[in-house]
Amino acid sequence: MPVSSSVSGGIVTLVVDGDHTAGELRRECHAGHTESGGESPFRVIVDISGASGVRRKSLGDWQDACRAANGHAATPERIAILGYRQPDESIPDGTGPRVRGFLTREAALDWVSE
Question: Nearest Cα to 25, choosing from 47, 9, 58, 56?
C-alpha cells in the first residue's frame, strides 16, 4: 500500500510511497486518528519524501486534502509536510489546520509537537 500510518506520542504519521490516491490518504489518516484514540485536536506528519508527483502540490492543496481526508472525523490542528519542496513555508490563515513544509523529520516533529 502506498500510504501507511503509525501513531507515536499522539502524533499521526502518514508515509506516502510512490503513487497514491486521495482515498488511500483518507483511509490511513482516519485509521491513524482512530488508533491515536480519536482525540481532537490531533496533529499529523505527512512524509512525502518517497512519494511520486506530489512535490508540485502547494501547501494549500495539502491543507485541502487533509481537511477532506478526514471528512467525518476531526480536522488535524497541525500538519507537517516532510520532504516538501519549500521548507518553512506555512499557512497560518485560521481557515483550517496549520500546515508547514519541512526538510527534516526533527524539525517537523518539533513544530508539530509545540
Answer: 47
Type of residue found at 107: A
Query: pLDDT of 78-111, one tens digit each?
Result: 888 888 766 666 665 555 667 888 889 999 999 9
pTM tops 0.85, yes or no: no
List, for residues 50-77, the tens digit of each pLDDT value.
877 665 666 666 666 666 555 545 667 8
CATH number, residue 93: 3.30.750
Q: Which domain holds residue 45?
A: 3-98
Nearest to 59 by CA among 18, 91, 87, 37: 91
CB 76 within 8 A of CB 69: no
Q: Which residues pair with 100 in a beta bridge?
A: 80, 90
d(CA 58, CA 64): 10
Say how far apart CA 85 and CA 68 lie, in whole Å: 22
Residue 35 inside a domain? The answer is: yes
